[in-house]
Fold these 3 entries.
Entry 1:
Amino acid sequence: MATSLIEATVTTSTVLAAGVPTTVHDAGAGRPLVLLHGSGPGVSAWANWSGVLPDLATDHRVVAPDLAGFGDSVAAPGTRYDMKLWVAQLIGLLDALGLATATLVGNSFGGGLALAATLRHPDRFDGLVLMGTPAGEFAMTEGLRAGWYYEPDLDEMARILRLFPHDPSVVTSAMVRQRYESSARPGAQDAFRRLMPEPGPDGTVVRGVPEASLRTITTPALVLHGREDAVIPVALGYRLLECLPHAELHVFGGCGHWVHVERPGRFVELVRGFARGLA
C-alpha cells in the first residue's frame, strides 16, 4: 500500500462471502460505509478507493471489497458472474462482518450493484451514494466498448484509462502499471464481459436497473456525476434524479467519470454530509 499512514490504518483480509473468498480493506470506526468499485479492466477496490478511503475512515467504518471476478477475489472455476452472485456476495460480506445495515457508495458498476442489492434487500441499506451510475437503457460508449475488447497490454491500458477522467493528466504511470498487472491475471476480463453485451457494428444498448424498478426504491440517494463523463453520460445522473423518489444530484463541471479521483475533497465532504443526514 502507498504510505505508512495508510498501512497503519487499513486492515486487509479475506472473508468468505457467498462462497467467494473476498479480499476486503477495512478501516476506521462508526457508521459503516461499504465502497463498491467499478468494472473497468484491472479494477480492484484498492485501485478504485485508496485515494479517499483513509479520509472517509476518520469518522466512519469503511469497508471496500473486491467483488467476485475482480481484484484478488477469485471465484471458483466455472462461476457464473451475474448480478445475483454479486448481490449474494455483498449480503454475505455484511453478515460475515456483523453489519446489520450500511450505507453503500457505488462507483459505476458498483452503483448498479448498490441499486440491485437495495431492490432485493431494502432493509440492509440506509443510504446510497451513486457515482457515475448506469440507469435504464443507453447507448454503449467508447469507454465501455474499449473495456470489453481489452486484452492485457500496457499501452492499451493507458489509452483506456485516459478515457475516464476529463483531464487525462490525472492518469499516472503508477496507476496504469497497477491496473495492467491486475488485468493480466487469467480470467480477469470474464466478469466485466458478463456485465454487458458484446459491442455490435450498428450500436449496442446497455441496460442498467429499469426505470420502473428505480421508482420503487425509497432509500435516500446522493447522485454524483461528472458533467463531461464520457463513459456513463451525465444524462443518466439526471435519470436517477427523476426516477428515485428520495434523491439529490450534484453535477461536477470539468469532471469525467472519476468524481472521487478528480474531485476527492468535495467527494469526501458530500459523502460525509449525506451520511450525517441519515443519522
Entry 2:
Amino acid sequence: MEVHAHTHTARKKWTHYFWEFIMLFLAVFCGFLAENQREHMIEHHRAKVYAANLYEELKKDTTTLNTIINNHITAYGKLDSFCLLSTEKEKRNITNGMLYYYSGFVTMVNFFASNNTTIDQLKGSGNLRLMSNNVSQKISEYDKKNNELENEYQLSRIEFEKMETLYFKIFDGYFYELITGGNGYNVNRDSVFILNPPLVNDDIKLMKEFIGWVKFEAGIYRSQNDTYHIPIKESAIELLALLKKEYHLK
C-alpha cells in the first residue's frame, strides 16, 4: 500500500498581507479621490452656469434701475413744479394745459422688479452653497435689499392709489392721453402749455388735498431713490464685478 505524504503550502509572510492591505487601501482611496474630484468639477461647472445666468439677469436689473432712477428724478421734479404752479395759478398766467402736463407725472412712476429667477433657483434648491463665500454673501445682501424694496412698494402703493384717485377726480384722463399720447416724457410741452382744457372738477378744497398728496408722494419718490433704488443698483454692480472676477465671465 502506498502512503502519500501531505504537501504543505508555504505560509505567506505578514509583510505580504500588509502590502495587500496597502494596495487595496490605495485603490479605494484613489477611487475616492477621483470621485471627489469628479463631483467637485461637476459642482464647479454648475456654479459657473448659475453665475453666468445671474450675471445676465443683473445686467438687465442695472439697466432697468437706471431708467427707474432717472424717471423718479424727472417725476418728482415735475410734481414739485405742479405744486408750485397750481398754488400760484391766480397770480400768474398758468393754463390748465400746464397743470395737465405736470400733474400727469403722478401716473408715470415705475416700480422695479428684479430678474431674480437664478437667485430663486439657488435658494430653492439649496445650491447657494455651490457659490463662493463672497459671492453667496453678496447674493444674500442683494436679495435682502430687493425684499425690503418690495415691502416699501406695498406701503407706497396704497398712498399712490389714493393720489391717483384724486387725480382722476380733477383731471380728464382721456384728454391727457389725447394731448400726450400717454407719455409726458416725450411730448412737446410748449404745445400743451398753450392749451386751456377744462378740469373735471375745479373745487379749490379738492385741489388743495391733491396738492398735499402730490407733495407727500414726491418726497416718497426721492426717498425710494436714495434709500432703495440707488443702493440696489450699487449692490448689483458690485455683484457683477465679483461674478466676473471669480468665474471669469465676459
Entry 3:
Amino acid sequence: MDLLRFSTAGSVDDGKSTLIGRLLFDSKNLFEDQLQAAERVTKRRGQEGVDLALVTDGLRAEREQGITIDVAYRYFATPRRKFIIADTPGHIQYTRNMVTGASMTSLAVVLVDVRNGVVEQTCRHAFISSLLGIRHLVVAVNKMDLVDHSEEAFRKVEDEMDAFASRLDVAAITYIPISALHGDNVVTRSKHMPWYEGPSMLYHLENVRVGSDLNTTDARFPVQYVIRPQTKEHHDFRGYAGRVSGGVFRPGDRVRVLPSGFESTVESVQSAGRNLEEAFAPLSVVMQLADDIDISRGDLICKPGNQPEPSQDLDVMLCWFSGAKPLKRGAKLVARHTTREVQCLVEELTYTVDVNTLHRNEEVSELRMNDIGRVKVRTSEPLCVDAYRRSRATGSLILVDPFTHETVGAGMVRG
C-alpha cells in the first residue's frame, strides 16, 4: 500500500494536535485506551467531552501549557493509503523541532486560525517547508465555527497566503476550511459550509499524488560499516553495510568509490542473510565488491559517470538552532553528512531571510536562534554532496558544536 508522510505546522493554538486527534478519531484509527486516557485528563481538568489534542501531546509540560513541544509521530491507515504524521511544534522557540519533524515528509499541513489570518509563524513554517523540499502544502483554515463558517473570512486568508506563497518553491497549494474541534471537513464534508466544493482533509490526503522523497536516478550508497566476520566459514568475507539513498544497485554493476575514485564491480547484494537481485532506496543492505579496495565508514559508492563532485567548499541554506550562541564568521564546528563527520569553518555569512517578507538582509554579522540564512562553509576533508533539490539524503547536513555535542544547525546544500 502507498505510504504518505506528512507534517502539521502552524502557530501556537491553531489546533494542530486537535486536528490530528480528530483525524484519528473520525477515521476509526484511535485505540480505546488512548481515548480513555484523553477522557480522564479532560475530566480531571473540569472540561466536558474529550480533548482530542491530548492524543498527541503526551509530555506533561505539553499538557500543562496546552502547547506542543516535541515532535509526536502517529501512524494510521485507511483502505487507500498508509500515513505517518509528524505533529510539529508551533512555538517559535521550538522551530528546530519543526525542522526535524518536517525533514522527511512529502506534504505539509499548515494550519491557520481564521480569526488571526496569516501570521509570522505561518510564513516561517511555509518557508521552511519549501526549503526542505516539500512541494505540496495544504493550508487548513481552522476554527471556521468561530466565524459562523464565513466564506468571506476563508477567502481573506486564502488571498493573504497566496500573496506570500507565490514566492516559494511549492508545486501545489490546497486550501481547506475546517473546524478540527467539531470535525467539519476533516474526514467528512461539512454541512455548515455548502459554499465549499473541495475535498475533505482525509480525502485529499488519500488521493494527492506526490513525488518520491527518494532520488531514483542517481545511485548513492553511503558506507556505514565494514563487516568482517571472524569465523572460519566467512574469514574472507568483506561487506559494506549501509542504506541506499538513491538509485539502484545490482550484481555486476560497475561502481566507483569516493573520495578515492577507485572502481570495482558489485559482486553481491545481501539483506537479512539472503541475496538480492537489486537494491534500491531506502533498503538497508550489505554490498560485496569484486576487488579489495580501501573503503571505510563515510565513503560513498556510486556509478561512474553519475557521481557527485567531492568538494570542501559548500554553499548552504542554514537554519540556526542554538539559543546559547549565535553563529558568526570564523566559527569552528563539526559537519555531519550522510555517514561522514568532518570539521568545518564558517567562512562567510552571505545573507539572512526575513520569513515575513522573504527579503534578504545582506548586512549580517551573525545568525541567531531560528534565523535562516545562506552561509559558506569550508570542510577539513572533501564531502560528496549533491544539491538538496536533487537529493535530500546527500544534499543535507547538520552542524554540531564540538564541545557540547549539541546540534546547532541544519543545512541544505545549494546547487
